[in-house]
Amino acid sequence: MDDELRLIPNLSIDCVIFGWDEGVLKVLLRKELIEYKDIVHIEWKLPGNHVGMNERIEDTATRVLKEQAGVENIFMKQFMVFSDLDRLRRREMDYQWIKKYGLGEDRVITVGFYSLVNLLNFDSSKLLNVAEWHNVDEVESLIFDHKEILGEALKKLKEDVTMHPIVFELLPKKFTLTQLQQIYEVILGTRFDKRNFRRKIANLKYVVSCNEKQYGVGHKPPSLFRFDPKIYSKIHQKNLDATA
Fold it and tell me: Which of the listed residues 129, 161, 193 is the one where a domain comes to its end?
């Protein structure tokens, strides 16, 4: 634990950092070496830490993202509180490991945040050497209740991408409609008819043509588009005013 920061032992933050990597949704995990019954086990967990005595939980999440993933000023959202009495006792191995750090005897309540990163813009040099990106679909087990936290984060992400334009956090500034369709399909776990999808996107005024083509990808380069946050804000505010 950070010697310069007085931490609250019963309150923590766990961050589910989703990364989009050329058609694959990934999640950042930390490797832990846990010795149990004279055997060293390689286990994985979500990035996280305990809340500082003088921190808001949002400040702790921001600190975790910077210190453990090397990212700042990215999309971040609180999605759930996890308070099961047996959070740290799901497996005896995990429980005995965490007790070595003076934790585990009392309850630890954790607040989950999820974040979105486009890995094309990600600086891996700032990543902790124990942290690695894993395909979301291939994560089998995590320590404590972290697999449950990951599942709830993914569920919230699926809900949010249908309600808010957060999907553009994972795309380059200029993207094709094929890239946009693919990211929706991967996150939602479904397939869309190409014509119907493009018809719906055409109705979204905040998805704006760049009047450019994506070159170097074939004989018929696709058109490029961009997300316009100002147009979205105006439409969103207009819809709020209409329901007031």
Answer: 161
